[in-house]
């Protein structure tokens, strides 16, 4: 009987710990919503953006985008969520939407904070 309890307990722990990997997206487990995104995660997220916007955020992508460095955090959140919702952007907004579509609100917040300080 003791052994059975152990097996049930172990299965419960596995069930409750959940799965944080979701089709390649980095997502925050429901039970850990208050946990802040680490600097390492922000850097990993920004590495994707840097391919186009530059490590310093000063590149004008294809000569078309604005420079993202130096914009305020709230402005960046407004634009990134605008791309996610399809309510903001120029002729290349479809391309940007694909970049930010998988980001959670916590990730957008952390990225905007990081970019505003570049
Ligand atoms: C494949 C290249 C590419 C990647 C990768 C990319 N962007 Fe962009 N970004 C663009 C282009 C092109 C535009 C201009 C789109 C338009 O027409 O609105 C843009 C525009 C933006 C703007 C609006 C700038 C402004 O003030 O007009 C923000 C903010 C932004 N990107 C943030 C990000 C973030 C954050 C990431 C990473 C998660 C990212 N981008 C990844 C190409 C890229």
Question: What would you note in describing this structure?
Answer:
- The structure is a single chain.
- This protein has helices at 2-17, 39-53, 73-85, 93-100, 105-116, and strands at 21-22, 25-26.
- By secondary structure, the protein is mainly α.
- It has a domain at 37-118: Cytochrome Bc1 Complex, Chain D, domain 2 (Orthogonal Bundle).
- The protein is globular.
- Residues 8-34 have low confidence and may be disordered.
- Bound molecules: heme C.
- The site of heme C has 24 residues, from helix 2, helix 3 and helix 4.
- Heme C (HEC) binds next to helix 2, helix 3 and helix 4.
How is the topology of this model organized?
Elements: H1 2-17, E1 21-22, E2 25-26, H2 39-53, H3 73-85, H4 93-100, H5 105-116
Antiparallel strand pairs: 1-2
The structure holds heme C.
Strand order in space, largest sheet? 1-2
Distinct compounds present = heme C
Helix content: 40-55%
Straight-line distance between termini: 60 Å
Nearest-angstrom radius of gyration?
19 Å
Shape: globular
Which short descriptors sum up this protein?
118 residues; mainly alpha; Cytochrome Bc1 Complex, Chain D, domain 2; two-stranded antiparallel ribbon; 5 helices; 3% strand; metal-binding
